[in-house]
From TrEMBL:
Similarity comment: Belongs to the CinA family.
MoaB/Mog domain location: 1-177
Name of the protein described by the UniProt record: CinA-like protein
Superkingdom, taxonomy of origin: Bacteria
InterPro entries: CinA, CinA-like_C, CinA_C, Competence-induced_CinA, MoaB/Mog-like_dom_sf, MoaB/Mog_dom
Ranges in a coiled coil: none
SMART domains per the UniProt record, alphabetical: MoCF_biosynth
NCBIfam families in alphabetical order: PncC_domain, PRK00549.1
Length: 426
């Protein structure tokens, strides 16, 4: 249950609920609801009553633990669980010490600070406070001793704080008692690129005609232009394991060429490993540096990424990458020939072992009959002469074309580095 009226406006997206759900799922907890609730006490109380009435064992709330008047989560949870709020003097000192580090420098009002400090140190009787990562402590509230109900884990709103406090929250006594009744699922995570959901759906239907898939939970999701197929089942189930093996075998038989990960690794994670020992350079036009951004996002990327050039104009292609102007005039800036010359320029300019070039028509204008919007030319070239060149027409609006181009370029790099041969169709 994520609280915050700003989440209901559409201007801010809840990042806590999906993250918490994923990490609870890994522990064997069946997540039944993700709720967004405004900063209104009656709405939060109604949501807690609904969840308790649905028979859940654990409620995780995020948000509403700050010092302001609209931060009501602790108070509402205390009332819902029948536990009066009491001052935790140790937590008052912990929060006070954190706040005091900023108080003098920022000239905060001392009386206001004292009130805020006390508010954040109020704990439902019998609950376990969780040390804050910011200024707001978390709370692990056990069921009511007489009337029962769910355990409630109360965490702050900032995602950074939720993640920093997660391990300690799971180790708290009330949450540990819930988790003692769970067992992690057996899971298989397949990642495919270049196959539509409709084909996987047909494959699953065909498997289901000869194999009972009921013991197996199958989830398919298209994310980042990658088809994710997740299979999970209760540990120790022979029937579920048989069904899983049948699904995986048929996916391999029909779509094995498109499976690039069997561990749930993303293309970013996989490529990071494959680039160990390489020196990478990028030359981008229509993607404007998005590929370089993806490649340098992981910590440690400096070990293999040398640099990149955003050669958006023809002059930049010629002056920065050494693309012959006559080549551009003869074939156009968006052409396989120019993409190959861009890759050559990036290899030479950065002394790289592998270079990736992208040039295309992202739209919405600029397309022609010969080179419509979505027409993108790629070239991946290595210092020892291996080359993959592609020039598909990618679907979607401008943002889709740019993002698809980045993902396709990463998969082309993967295939060059693994020696898998020509890439699957987009």
């Amino acid at each position: 249950m994520a609280t915050g009226s700003e989440l209901l406006t559409g201007r801010i997206t809840d990042r806590n609920g999906p993250w918490v759900a994923e990490h609870l799922g890994e522990l064997g907890v069946e997540v039944s609801h993700l709720l967004l609730v405004g900063d209104r006490g009656e709405d939060m109380a109604a949501a807690l009553r609904f969840l308790a009435g649905d028979g859940v064992d654990l409620i995780v709330t995020t948000g509403g633990l700050g010092p302001t008047a609209d931060d009501l989560t602790g108070e509402v949870v205390a009332a819902a669980t029948g536990r009066p709020l009491e001052l935790d003097e140790h937590m008052e000192k912990v929060v006070g010490d954190i706040i005091s580090k900023f108080a003098d420098r920022l000239r905060w009002d001392a009386d206001a600070l004292a009130a805020a400090n006390r508010k954040q140190a109020m704990v439902p009787r019998g609950a376990t406070p969780i040390r804050p990562a910011g200024t707001a402590p978390g709370l692990a509230v056990p069921p009511h001793p007489e009337r029962g109900g769910p355990t409630v884990l109360v965490l702050p709103g900032p995602p950074r704080e939720v993640r920093a406090m997660w391990d300690e929250a799971l180790a708290s006594g009330p949450v540990r008692e819930v988790l003692a009744r769970t067992a992690p699922y057996d899971e298989t995570h397949l990642r495919l690129f270049g196959v539509p959901e409709s084909e996987i759906a047909a494959t699953l239907r065909d498997v289901g005609e000869t194999t009972d898939l009921a013991p197996l939970e199958i989830t398919t999701c298209l994310r980042d232009f990658t088809l994710e197929v997740d299979l999970r089942h209760a540990p120790g189930s022979t029937a579920a394991a048989t069904a899983r093996d049948a699904v995986v075998a048929e996916i391999d038989r029909r779509h094995g060429r498109t499976v690039f990960s069997r561990t749930g690794q993303s293309i970013d994670e996989l490529l990071f490993e494959l680039l160990d020992g390489q020196v990478v350079a990028t030359a981008e036009s229509c993607t404007g540096g998005l590929l370089a951004g993806r490649l340098t996002a992981p910590a440690g990327a400096s070990a293999h990424v040398a640099g990149g050039v955003v050669s958006y104009s023809n002059d930049a292609k010629a002056d920065l990458l050494g693309v012959p102007r006559e080549l551009i005039e003869a074939h156009g800036a968006v052409s396989p020939q120019v993409a190959e010359a861009m890759a050559d320029g990036a290899l030479a300019r950065f002394g790289a072992t592998i270079a990736v070039a992208i040039t295309g028509v992202a739209g919405p204008g600029g397309g022609t009959e010969a080179k419509p919007v979505g027409y993108v030319c790629f070239c991946v070239r290595t210092s020892d002469g291996r080359t993959f060149s592609r020039d598909p027409v990618l679907p979607g609006e401008r943002g889709d074309v740019r993002e698809r181009s980045v993902v396709l370029a990463m998969h082309l790099m993967r295939r060059v580095l693994t020696g898998e041969g020509e890439p699957a169709p987009v």
